[in-house]
Amino acid sequence: MASQLLNVTRTLSKLSLNTKCRLGNTLIKLEQELAPQPLFSNPSRNTNFFNKLPAHDLWKGITSVSNAGKKRGRGKTVSKKNIKDLNRGQIIGVGKANIVWPGLTAPIIRGKEIVEQQQLPEDPERQKKLDALRDQMGTHRYAKLSPIERGWSGAKMPGRSIGPPDPIGEEVFTGFDSKVIELKTVFNMKGNFGRKRRVSATVVTGNQNGVAGFANGKGQEPKTALRKAKNRSGQKLMHIKIFRNHTVYHDFFTQFGATKIFVQQKPEGYGLVCHRAIKTICEVVGIKDLHAKVEGSTSVTHVMKAFFLGLIRQKSHEEIAESKGLHLVEFCKENGYFPTVLASPAKCRSPDEIKNDEILDFTQYCYDGRVVLKKKKHPPFYTKHKSYEIYLKKQEKLRNKEEVKMNLIAQYGEIRSFLTEKYPECRPYKEPKKEQAEEDSNT
């Protein structure tokens, strides 16, 4: 035995270092294979990419966008709404095979008895309930909005209603409604925090009866900014004059910064033909008929401030009559231009007291001598073609033919000319009535 061990040691000493390492590794592997295996294997060997990362990181890899991509406008549709919790509605031990697991889904001991593992009947509506839960997740908010509740463009906040301001003590804003005019993100560069992001909101509040106000609010989140702006606008209310509960008292010109607005009074039923910000303000104030032309800058905040300035500076008919010292008379097309006296001064001026250079035109007086810019209408392109001249020559004999026919029928009851009395047989043929035709056939 000793001689055999000597021979083994001599042969091992003659082997190289690499051979010794290989021989040692094989011996270690044999020892591991012959050793008793544990009850549970190492879970790290049987894992893949989907088991290593949690659901939050997996969704982030699909839906997230880098900061550089966000600055370039990418990933606008990416949000937390698109992330679905696929474990929602699932309970441990309840599935296709409902089994009671003592110690996991049920207690081990119930009273004095030991709970045994048993199978329960299947729930046929389980999959339908899971599908209904998952369909509710990730839906867009504007899908639930009706077309009336939507804003200027889809589900964006500008133009949408956010309800009345919050009550202040015992004061409750009954009958008030608030609408968003602008919602934007503002960045401010700080020395210690860097680019600081905030949200700015502009809101208009009114009771649709001549009381309205506007304010601006800022916050870290859109909800905070909107709430601040809504409550501040409720504290800055102002009274606005409305003529006959549907339009402004008179035409007026207003300006704020580079924004100029020409507003015209319109009859009932005309509607709101104006900028969308002005339309939103009119809905809150209670104005139903209006025409407004915006010139210059169309910044939403400037348009809002300019329009509010014009509404506040309106003069009543009595004030206009007193300032001019003349009667204010209305000539309305709806009344057949019948003169209606709207206001009279305490002392009316005589024609001798009126100066020659005084502005007496009501529209020019309201616009402070300004004139609305009207673009020149160019003739259509086809009027320059020779074919259009030929068309006019052919249609000259038929020009106003239908109108002349209608006028003759209205005046004489038939189509006739100045020669009809001399030649009565020259009348257009009329089909006889049925009764007269039957009498003629009988005779």
TrEMBL record:
<dbReference type="Pfam" id="PF00333">
    <property type="entry name" value="Ribosomal_S5"/>
</dbReference>
<comment type="subunit">
    <text>Component of the mitochondrial ribosome small subunit (28S) which comprises a 12S rRNA and about 30 distinct proteins.</text>
</comment>
<dbReference type="Pfam" id="PF21251">
    <property type="entry name" value="Ribosomal_uS5m_N"/>
</dbReference>
<feature type="domain" description="S5 DRBM">
    <location>
        <begin position="176"/>
        <end position="240"/>
    </location>
</feature>
<dbReference type="InterPro" id="IPR000851">
    <property type="entry name" value="Ribosomal_uS5"/>
</dbReference>
<protein>
    <recommendedName>
        <fullName>Small ribosomal subunit protein uS5m</fullName>
    </recommendedName>
</protein>
<keyword id="KW-0496">Mitochondrion</keyword>
<dbReference type="GO" id="GO:0005763">
    <property type="term" value="C:mitochondrial small ribosomal subunit"/>
</dbReference>
<dbReference type="InterPro" id="IPR005324">
    <property type="entry name" value="Ribosomal_uS5_C"/>
</dbReference>
<keyword id="KW-0689">Ribosomal protein</keyword>
<comment type="similarity">
    <text>Belongs to the universal ribosomal protein uS5 family.</text>
</comment>
<dbReference type="GO" id="GO:0005743">
    <property type="term" value="C:mitochondrial inner membrane"/>
</dbReference>
<dbReference type="GO" id="GO:0003735">
    <property type="term" value="F:structural constituent of ribosome"/>
</dbReference>
<dbReference type="InterPro" id="IPR014721">
    <property type="entry name" value="Ribsml_uS5_D2-typ_fold_subgr"/>
</dbReference>
<dbReference type="InterPro" id="IPR020568">
    <property type="entry name" value="Ribosomal_Su5_D2-typ_SF"/>
</dbReference>
<dbReference type="GO" id="GO:0006412">
    <property type="term" value="P:translation"/>
</dbReference>
<dbReference type="Pfam" id="PF03719">
    <property type="entry name" value="Ribosomal_S5_C"/>
</dbReference>
<dbReference type="InterPro" id="IPR048584">
    <property type="entry name" value="Ribosomal_uS5m_N"/>
</dbReference>
<dbReference type="GO" id="GO:0003723">
    <property type="term" value="F:RNA binding"/>
</dbReference>
<keyword id="KW-0687">Ribonucleoprotein</keyword>
<dbReference type="InterPro" id="IPR013810">
    <property type="entry name" value="Ribosomal_uS5_N"/>
</dbReference>
